[in-house]
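thread from #wetlab-drylab

HS: before we spend reagent money on co-crystallization trials with nicotinamide-adenine-dinucleotide, can we at least see a predicted complex? here's what I'd submit
DV: go for it
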Amino acid sequence: MWKVSPTRLEDMCTAIMRAAGAPGSDARLVADHLVDNDIIGHHSHGVIRLWDYVEWAHHGDLIPGARPRIFSETRTTARIDGNWNFGQVVATFATGLAIEKARAAGISVVTIRRVKHIGRLGRYAEQVAAEGLVSMLFTNGGGHGINQAPFRGTERKLCSNPLAMSVPSSLAGPFLLDMATSVAAEGKVRVYRARGAPTPAGWILDSDGNPSTDPEDFAEGGALLPVGGSEGHKGYALAFMVELLAGVMSGGGISGDPGRSFSNDSMVIVIDPELFVPMAELRERSLTLTEHLKDTRLADESQPVLYPGEKEAEARLANRERDIELPDPVRQQLLAMLQRFSLPEAELVSSG
Ligand SMILES: NC(=O)c1ccc[n+]([C@@H]2O[C@H](COP(=O)([O-])OP(=O)(O)OC[C@H]3O[C@@H](n4cnc5c(N)ncnc54)[C@H](O)[C@@H]3O)[C@@H](O)[C@H]2O)c1
């Protein structure tokens, strides 16, 4: 494993994206997203993703610097064309617009299409919660990134179609559900592969449809299973609904009718909770709920009951100042990208 400070890692990623053509503020924003994901332990959406982004930019699939365009809007809705820029840039813009509209009108629905990987959905749900608003997000792969089997199927047919929801809280972080509809995000299998470790049982099938724990089997054409184990119809049904809300409703691609290339087509819904309940009551009652659930006999004394989002909020507080540990293949990728653009930090990474 390679240890690196968050600041140095963010500077390196920013430099790489600038060299790949991104304006400085976009490069910094994407780097901040990736490094924050590593800080909170979501390495599947950390700097491990940068390689793909640089390759996409190189092949013209991602257009650094392209500005998102609102191609139609009402007081409560907007349809955004991401113009194939970095997903983090487009989704941050779309979420900001949804926040603005919900502040003015109480609720908003914004769709996004033609946008590259938006990363961890929780980041946008956190952006909304920080404004005292409630969010729901749905994202597909635009008919690409096919890696999940439908319930009762044995082959890849869908993307891991994530969804997120947030409610503001007075705790360390917002109440935040942020999940793939497959049993785990595809990037988590990548992380196991990079570490040379087996995946937990029940995550993947090999390309013949047999259960497997070897991440190489997934890489060679296997499939992720829908969330829910033997009750996988629920994860699959959620993934199906995400295709409709994020793909069909945005005018983007869907499984079976893909767009030009991988696109995290999305729907962002923002609600002003104070139209329904005063903020003080929302905070107080959600705290009562949390305390009620935590006050229980535990299956394992070392594993307390958590509220959704607690793990990420606590990890951010605990790890912010600590070095990040990354597997060697990720260091090698960073080194290759720094060398490709003749960036001076290459020496540091090669000796790291
Ligand atoms: N952009 C994309 O195309 C894409 C695709 C798939 C997934 N993703 C992202 O991948 C990330 C990981 O997804 P995942 O499904 O593997 O997430 P996960 O299984 O790590 O977490 C899912 C949710 O469960 C909550 N949680 C975890 N432990 C808990 C506990 N003990 N008690 C209560 N709640 C708990 C977490 O706070 C989180 O909200 C997400 O951020 C998701 O947005 C992105």
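DV: The radius of gyration is 20 Å.
HS: ok that's useful, forwarding to the group
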